């Protein structure tokens, strides 16, 4: 057992984030002040996020997944309503749609990036279509100008899945702030990490009030006498978690720059390798690589070889159309298929050291003879 643990520590982890004594001190202070459940720290965090992203309202939740659920309910979606979703996205949004008995309409991604192909959206719209969910996967933006134009024309809502795109921008505006609602994740492998957690942003006061009710059993104020007329569940974010998030807020821009630096080092180190190519990012347009995303036709073999060299590498997600509950035999997704077969993520994170990246690059260069 000891040897297994010892070996695990030698492994270069796929994601690297550290919590400092300062981070921990925020949690201790919260405990000492008896701020444990949702309270003042939570409100302070919501206000800081609103100011950061330049939106009117922010509502925290237990995860990015529950944030999606809250958004769908606040937007008034009902059973059998249709929702357009990119075929390449994390399973959370599709699972919530399925759980709420909404109909998933899958759209292929672009040839050059794993982002919904906006030119394929209109052909998938029917009278039952009520919502479009563009996913800004790994800090890359969907074409929000075109998507908002389509949504306005057909009078349907837009929910931005920005779980992987905090601090990324489109046309000099933060992702997640274009549609009716934007959702974000504060899970372990995010730029702002509280282990688990998420939040929603909106500029619509009506949606904001509905979100507050839905996340707390329909209650806005426990001293009210008529909150029994509303419904909801418990998706409250604790002050302990909020305090951990508050300890990181001031460093978000620094963390974003670190992610860009990681990318530049990898891009330069991989430029002469034929068997693996780093996905392009445009920093001037506001894209932000949360993770180091690469493509390799030898993906599976490469991951095994990296593991043998004590380096974790994560394969890309399976496409949604390959899950039995979302399968449509009459549709093909050629671009999604390409990314599913070739995508992988190399070690990255807000706290990964340069020497660790150089070690990964050194191994990758040595492996070129074996691939």
**What structural class is derived from the secondary structure elements?**
alpha/beta
> What shape does the CA trace take?
globular
H/I helix tally: 12
Following the backbone from N to C, one meets helices and strands in this order, namely HHHEHEHEEHEEEEEHHHEEHEHEH
Helix content: 25-40%
The average pLDDT score comes to: 94
Overview of the structural elements:
37% of the residues lie in helices and 13% in strands. It is an alpha/beta fold and 371 residues long. The strands form 3 sheets. Strands 1-9-8-5-4-2-3 form a 7-stranded mixed beta sheet, sandwiched between helices. A 4-stranded antiparallel beta sheet has the order 10-11-13-12. The chain has a two-stranded antiparallel ribbon with strand order 6-7. A hairpin with a 2-residue loop joins strand 6 and strand 7 (173-174). Helix 3 packs parallel to helix 8 (239-249). It is globular and about 70 Å long.
């Amino acid at each position: 057992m000891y040897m297994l643990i010892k070996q695990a520590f030698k492994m270069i982890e796929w994601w690297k984030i550290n919590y400092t004594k300062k981070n921990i001190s925020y949690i201790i202070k919260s405990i000492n002040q008896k701020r444990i459940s949702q309270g003042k720290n939570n409100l302070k965090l919501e206000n800081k996020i609103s100011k950061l992203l330049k939106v009117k309202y922010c509502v925290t939740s237990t995860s990015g997944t529950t944030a999606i659920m809250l958004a769908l309910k606040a937007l008034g979606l009902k059973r059998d309503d249709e929702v357009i979703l990119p075929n390449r996205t994390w399973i959370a949004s599709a699972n919530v749609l399925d759980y709420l008995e909404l109909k998933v309409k899958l759209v292929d991604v672009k040839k050059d990036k794993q982002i919904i192909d906006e030119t394929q959206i209109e052909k998938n719209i029917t009278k039952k279509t009520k919502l479009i969910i563009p996913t800004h996967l790994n800090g890359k933006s969907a074409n929000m100008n075109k998507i908002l134009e389509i949504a306005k024309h057909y009078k349907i809502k837009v929910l931005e899945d920005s779980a992987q795109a905090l601090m990324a921008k489109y046309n000099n505006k933060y992702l997640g702030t274009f549609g009716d609602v934007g959702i974000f994740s504060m899970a372990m492998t995010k730029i702002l990490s509280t282990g688990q957690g998420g939040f929603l942003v909106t500029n619509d006061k009506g949606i904001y009030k509905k979100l507050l009710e839905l996340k707390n059993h329909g209650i806005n104020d426990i001293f009210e006498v008529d909150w029994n007329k509303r419904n909801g569940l418990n998706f409250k974010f604790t002050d302990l978690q909020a305090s951990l998030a508050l300890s990181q807020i001031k460093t978000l821009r620094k963390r974003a720059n670190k992610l860009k630096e990681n990318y530049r080092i990898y891009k330069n180190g991989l430029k002469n390798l034929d068997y693996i190519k780093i996905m392009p990012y445009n920093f001037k347009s506001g894209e932000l690589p949360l993770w180091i995303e690469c493509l390799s036709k030898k993906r599976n073999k490469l991951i095994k070889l990296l593991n043998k060299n004590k380096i974790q590498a994560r394969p890309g997600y399976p496409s949604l159309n390959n899950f039995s509950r979302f399968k449509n035999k009459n549709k093909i997704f050629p671009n999604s298929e390409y990314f599913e077969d070739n995508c992988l993520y190399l070690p990255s994170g807000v706290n990964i050291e340069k020497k660790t990246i150089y070690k990964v690059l050194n191994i990758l260069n040595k492996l070129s003879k074996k691939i």
